[in-house]
């Protein structure tokens, strides 16, 4: 894990055009090696030309696979994406690449027949949603409910979400959610249900809230989930400039 000094050095040059660094407190691995990779690789699985990771196979390219961080999550994540969502644009792929033991991406209507014993929960905001912090605590005191071992995210626009939610295999799943946060995503999320967050942000915050509930504080063990997200955030800000972007209002929103 990088020391605060190392993180400061790694980002001082990149952040010079950005008034505030919303990621400065996060413990994310130095990503400067990504800038040394100029071309593309051939994906070892599908043989298509890819940069950093294959958004179809959800694996890193050979150039970066031994350099990117690896995150172990306390329970599994399924992301169900709408077939009309473009693979290359989905930030959910970041989670599958960084936490390959825990995260899989499924395309609707490929929805598993999930256990309905409390061990699987759907991450979705709504009247019936229970904050993940509460869900974890009540599981500990409820012998009839199995402890959480998987959460399901839906990666789609609001209009597509209703159709996915109606899938028979999702009926009867408890809904969990996390504390609302503002997004740093550069691509406006028209009609996204989860407070307009990028899917990778939603995954990250769910685990931040979970870690906080479980340990009593958040010890940053999931920050590297945002490895590619932070890299792309700075890339895009360096291209378009900070003035027009959401950096200033976002600076206090990241931990
Ligand atoms: Zn591939």
TrEMBL record:
Record-level GO BP terms: tRNA modification
Alphabetic keyword roster: Nucleus, S-adenosyl-L-methionine, Transferase, tRNA processing
Reactions accelerated catalytically: a uridine in tRNA + S-adenosyl-L-methionine = a 3-[(3S)-3-amino-3-carboxypropyl]uridine in tRNA + S-methyl-5'-thioadenosine + H(+)
GO molecular function list: tRNA-uridine aminocarboxypropyltransferase activity
Principal location class: nucleus
Enzyme Commission number: 2.5.1.25
GO cellular component: nucleus
A UniProt-annotated Pfam family: DTW
Protein family per UniProt: Belongs to the TDD superfamily. DTWD1 family.
Name used for this protein in its record: tRNA-uridine aminocarboxypropyltransferase 1
UniProt source species: Artemia franciscana
Lineage of producing organism: Eukaryota, Metazoa, Ecdysozoa, Arthropoda, Crustacea
């Amino acid at each position: 894990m990088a020391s605060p000094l190392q993180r400061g050095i790694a980002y001082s040059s990149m952040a010079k055009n950005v008034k505030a660094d919303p990621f400065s407190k996060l413990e994310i691995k130095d990503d400067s090696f990504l800038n040394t990779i100029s071309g593309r690789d051939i994906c070892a699985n599908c043989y298509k030309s890819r940069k950093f990771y294959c958004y179809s196979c959800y694996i890193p390219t050979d150039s970066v696979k031994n350099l990117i961080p690896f995150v172990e999550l306390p329970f599994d994540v399924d992301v169900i994406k709408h077939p009309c969502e473009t693979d290359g644009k989905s930030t959910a792929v970041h989670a599958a690449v960084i936490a390959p033991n825990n995260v899989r991406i499924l395309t609707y209507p490929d929805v598993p027949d999930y256990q309905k014993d409390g061990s699987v929960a759907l991450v979705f905001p709504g009247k019936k949603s229970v904050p993940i912090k509460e869900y974890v605590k009540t599981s500990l005191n409820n012998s009839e409910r199995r402890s959480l071992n998987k959460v399901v995210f839906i990666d789609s626009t609001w209009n597509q979400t209703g159709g996915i939610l109606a899938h028979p295999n999702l009926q009867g799943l408890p809904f969990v959610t996390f504390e609302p946060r503002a997004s740093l995503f550069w691509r406006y999320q028209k009609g996204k249900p989860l407070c307009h967050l990028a899917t990778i942000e939603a995954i990250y915050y769910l685990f931040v809230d979970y870690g906080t509930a479980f340990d009593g504080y958040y010890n940053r063990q999931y920050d590297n989930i945002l490895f590619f997200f932070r890299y792309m955030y700075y890339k895009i800000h360096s291209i378009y400039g900070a003035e027009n972007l959401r950096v200033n209002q976002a600076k206090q929103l990241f931990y």
